[in-house]
Write a structure and sequence with these properties.
single chain, 208 residues, mainly alpha, Serine Threonine Protein Phosphatase 5, Tetratricopeptide repeat
Amino acid sequence: MAQNNMYNLVTLIKRAPARRSRPVTSRPRRLNSPTAPHLYRPPRPLPRSPLPPRPPSPQDPLPESVEEFDNFISQSVDKYVQASDKLGGLIAEQAAKVLDGFKQQRRFLLISTKAKKPDISVSADIPVYQELLKPINEALIAVGNIKESNRGSAVFTQLSAVAEGIMVLAWVTVDNKPFRHVEESLGSAQFFGNRVLSEHKDKYGWRH
């Protein structure tokens, strides 16, 4: 449909110069006047009324799956980011990359509701699929790089927990039972999360 509209637009643009350059074949009427019987007086142009404002284009309602993902970001991811910002430093820096990863996945999910999935068995579709996944992959790499670049940090265990957990976003690349990939990623994150609790329970009096 969009391609047909594009062709129609091109056709209209091509016709416009032809219409403007078309010669006028009809002769103007002469106004009879006792002082100038053959004088042609063009009519005065009427004042142009302002054009009414264009109505706003209606937006398509969000698919239910995208709305639920938005709720998850606002209710869970945003709270994690706010708590990380209070701690500051590497934890806040990594949390910002996590939030970007979820935003990029939200974009991917919205596109997937409006377009057919590229066929990766067709060589021509592979670059398209890779381009769609690229922003998500870049976010995953950024989160992991913060961990790898700070192995000597006092918060390395926390960075490791987040780096393992963010891998849940890769579920979109799994065709067969993607929930298993999510479970494995969360299990790895929980392993490091338990180590964080263990390392700090004596210092802060935390309990499992």
